[in-house]
Amino acid sequence: MKVLEINHCNKKFGDNEVLKDISLSVSEGQVVSIIGPSGSGKSTLLRCATLLETMDGGDLIYLGNHATKADGTGKSIYSDDNKLREIKKHFGLVFQNFNLFPHYSVMRNITEPPILIGKRPKDEVYAEARELLAKMGLSDKEDAYPHQLSGGQQQRVSIARALAMKPEILFFDEPTSALDPELTGEILKVIKDLAAEHMTMVIVTHEMSFARDVSNHIIFMDGGVIVEEGAPEEVINNPKQERTKAFLGRFQQ
Amino acid sequence: MDIAEYLSIIQQLAGGMLATLFIFVLTLVFSMPLGLLVAFGRMSKWAPFAFLLPEDKFQEKGLRKWIGNFKPIQFLAKVYISILRGTPLMLQLLVVYFAPYYIFGVTLSKSYRFMAVLIGFSVNYAAYFAEIYRSGIESIPVGQYEAASVLGYNKYQTFFKIVFPQMVKRILPPVTNEIITLVKDTAMAFVLNYTEMFTLAKQIAAAKTTIIPLFIAGVFYFIFNWVVAYVMERVEKSLSYYR
Ligand SMILES: Nc1ncnc2c1ncn2[C@@H]1O[C@H](COP(=O)(O)OP(=O)(O)OP(=O)(O)O)[C@@H](O)[C@H]1O
Ligand SMILES: [Mg+2]
């Protein structure tokens, strides 16, 4: 079953064509990493997939449900708000700078969305939130507020907040790049644990060795197009395209 | 003057203080929500003629661009704010009081005096509160909206659960300023001869040819504002559990 399908996605900001005919699909349990130079459109692709940006052309499909459908000319036609709200239940997004709600305790950050939006019973949601926090090693932080936590702890809370909605697919946009180098490890470990549990994930990252270790599929983007994709060892260790080689070469120095 | 006279002045002014308090509280009750409505209007992006703009909005210039981008609700809110901030409050009070008669020929009962004071103050303060709210709302990082959107919050849930509480914390200092100004501005009700404390103090001062009542009125205002500042400080403290 395809969890996510994007067909022929196009996105422009004014005259700037940021995504050009991008197609990708993610199956259940797959971990896909997206790498590429700054400005290549990685974040924009994730933002289109999570409905934070509207794409100009192409389809966006979650588990067979169309968020957008291309019309005869390829232009994206979006479904109505109710359907989009239903579709949002299929995915979660972890931001580079966490975006926790500062006025809520850790517990409320995690429990409000499933209770308010998911309409799920309180005690069940609280029990699950405690389990998630235990898994993230944050059991003692239930009542803390975001500003009292380190960046790594905040990012773990934001992963727990996303997981509490039980998404079928989880997106990460550079989840470690706002963190001090010594804190990136704890986040990468959490993501690796999720991969081991076969969580479906799409990860934009600049951590090449992590991308190689954690994913089943790597996409290299440059200038708004997918230049090369394939198995991690192939793309990272043995790139075919010149642009991929140049990018990875720059990275190793 | 003997002690008894002082006491009688204080007693009369305390009565006037009650009227002042009344204007103060009711003005806040009306102007704070009204200000939020005006702020929403000021931030409205509704552009009914946007269909005039071509697909590629960035190319368009000239009149068609102007009409296409015209936002009527935002425009009205801007006009409202600029008029109420740009003209004296005293003038606004007079207009509210006399307009029904001079413009519409309606004679209003004596009790309209109080209504006029209240409408004048509320409408004027709403303009200031609107801009304070707007600055607060616009200072909320866009990431908060994006996080809420991805989690499935709708517009109302996002505003009331995420944006509004954070806005309140951020705007407390300017709101405190505004409230303290209001305490002092209530004295302006004298232009409509509404007998709040200041009007009363002036009357007594004139009758007894002494400035003591004015001095006592000053002490009253000072205490009033001291209480306001104290309460607002407590409110700020109660919201200091997060950043
Ligand atoms: N809201 C926007 N308005 C206009 N242009 C934008 C906007 N967002 C992104 N862009 C442009 O789109 C292009 C792709 O940006 P994007 O953020 O997707 O790159 P990225 O691959 O995520 O880069 P990085 O690795 O630096 O995060 C850039 O040229 C950028 O300037
Ligand atoms: Mg990016």
Q: Give the uncertain stretches of chain A in residue-range form.
A: none
DSSP summary, beta strand count of chain A: 11
Structural class of the helices, strands and pairings of chain B? mainly alpha
Average predicted local confidence, pLDDT of chain A: 95
The profile of the biggest β sheet of chain B is: none
Count of discrete alpha- or pi-helical segments spanning 4 or more residues of chain A: 9
Order of helices and strands of chain A: EEEHEEEHEHHHEHEHEEHH
Task: Please tally the β strands of chain B and state the result.
Answer: 0
**What is the percent of helical residues of chain B?**
over 70%
Measured as a percent range, the helix fraction of chain A is 25-40%
Strand order of the largest sheet of chain A: 7-8-9-3-10-11
Shape of chain B: flat
Percent of residues in β-strands of chain A: 25-35%
**Radius of gyration of chain B in whole Å, from Cα?**
23 Å
Which term fits the overall shape of chain A? globular
Notes on the protein architecture:
- The complex is a heterodimer of chains A (253) and B (243).
- Chain A contains nine helices and eleven strands.
- Chain A is of the alpha/beta class and 253 residues long.
- In chain A, the strands form two sheets. Chain A has a six-stranded mixed beta sheet, sandwiched between helices.
- In chain A, α3 packs across α4 and α3 runs parallel beside α5 (151-164).
- The longest helix of chain A is centred in the last third of the chain and has 16 residues, at 181-196.
- Chain A is globular.
- Chain B is an all-alpha fold.
- Chain B contains nine helices and no strands.
- The mean pLDDT of chain B is 92.
- Chains A and B meet through β7 and α3 of A and α6 and α7 of B.
- Adenosine-5'-triphosphate is lined by residues 13, 16, 18, 36, 38-44 of chain A.
